[in-house]
Amino acid sequence: MSDIIEDLALKAADGDASAVTALNDTLKELVELDEKSNTALIETAELIFDDATSASANEQKVALALDMARLNVESLAIRDTIATVARAKYSEYLDPAGLIRSIAVLNTDISLAEVHVRFQLFAYINENEHVWHDSFGMGIIKEIDAFSDIIKVHFKTPQTFSLEQALQNLSAVIPGSLVDLLIKKESSFTKSQDAKEFEISISQSFSPQLKSAIKIIESLLVPEHLGPKELINWLDKEGKAKKTVPTTNETTTDATTPGPNDPITWENARSLQELKVHISDEKSIDFTDEHVAHFLKLYTFASQREKSSADFAETMSMLMLLAKDKEKVIGLVKALPESVIWTDSELYRSSIIKLPGKYSEPWFTASYHAKERDAFITDSSLLPMKYYAHMEKAVINDEFSIEQLIDMIVTLYKNRQVGPDGLLWLWKQGTENSVEAISNPRRLFKVLSKEAVGEYIKSRKTLFQLLMDDVEFQKVMMEGGSNEGIATFVKIVKNMKLLDKGEQQSLLVKIVRQFPEARAHVEEKKAPTLKKDSPKISSIASVEARQKELQDIINKRIPENSNAISEARSHGDLRENFEFKAAKEQQRFLMARRGELEGGLNIITAMDFSAIEPDDLVIPGSTVDLSIDGKPQTYHICGLWDSNPDIDILSYDTPIGQALLGSEVGDAVDIPAGTATVNAIKKLPEEIVQWLEKPRLLETE
Fold it and tell me: Mean pLDDT in the chain?
């Protein structure tokens, strides 16, 4: 076969149209390629698809490109062809760039096989069509926002996905398929149907085709057509239940394990899947020490398998919810080895979001007893705000006060570990500490500048609305209305990239209405306070380098110097003791440097220059194009401690920086090198931002 493929690929590369068709027909029958065939196709792809535009207009070449992608023949030419096809085929989609990004056709970190899956799936992403999600079950697409690349799906609880998330995680029901007909009541189910054939038809009803249709079958047939136990019996006709029972590694051998003729119940379940099926009809359960011993084996096995995490979380929540003696379930949790679902922060958070709402509280209770308290709060604080009540209840039940919880969330926020949800929660607490923490407008703008998806969108919108409309919130941002607070807030509103021009203007008008004295700051074009009275700022990396140097001096170098002085003193006559004099000189230097660092760090503000939009004034964070006596020159005006003349980065505190601050395009400015004309004021380029973010060496290194 590889020789045939190689021969056809060479002919297709030479422009033989019939070879393109024959090669396409050959590849359609294959599930995977051998190494020789794959190499031959990679080597000829650049010639077969040498012009993406013409190739995308050739039906046979389009089919060939898609089949080669399906078989994971990696080639930039194939990627370009599929990208061109996508733009043409889905031209009605309002954000073509977002579509290409979501399909990931130009992202070489994503395999072409995955690109093929996403490309095919997108054809079925339409409003009012049904989709399947492994955790949320069957849902229906209610809204497609092509401007924002957002897909809203109604499962039992509504969920919002970015287009990329939808193409990664959803399977769409193919119109006219068996599943489509069952949903529309245009086809019926009978127990006489062949279970194996039924599963194949169900699996083939989706794009992409499902590897296992057991969960789909359960959702379609239970309880309308079959009860949970009837389903297992029906599947057993073809030995199908073997796929849902545990492997020999997972099977228990204690007294609760059923014999060959014993009925399966929740108490003797041999896997988490069986437990899920048989406990779902229970109203409450008597959970005993014998059950702890039995389920410890099941959960220990599942605890290290990421693929079992959904069943792990749901069934553990069921046990916690239904058990009359919840301490027995907590004992089970504490007896387990560290589970991947509790050690992997992302997996932990996603497991909560995927759970049905009634299981949220019991899952938080279980998780609190499984994780260290600090880790539990840190991971839980990154969840959507609706889960904060469960986090509060879990920790406060353990005699951890709400004030302590607030203090910890404040610390996480200051360390950039909390998003809009945590910030909104802090605002609603209304304590002095929580309000003080959110009074930093620069940090707020940075949080709001990050994209939110899914359940995180709501809190971001609410927080943004507070910024735009809530008078009390705005006052907090302006330190109650102090002149310095107003000036700082206005400057951030003008310069940080978050608001469009209309939003910016609206917010500035509201500020002036609250505080008429703010008009001077709002209307001010040149900012003399930039040169003298403004807060001192520097890049985060430069500030961190000085903090690190200060800690090195305090914790290491001063103690070492003290030991050196003591050692030298023991040598006798201090007048001729050069070691003692050198050590004392070093002591004077260290004390002076410590004072210098502490003084500087007390007045400096760390600035993320990537978020600065200079608009029409030279401010720290600007790139300035000049003409100096007719010669072009570019300077990047940055923070107090940021300087690299080799790449034209200047501190705003240098003579040139001070001369340029506050100037506009067209201004003539006197600088040490002569008279400069400001030609353009721009955002810092990416390479300069990267240098600013690069960790600095200590002064002593």
Answer: 85
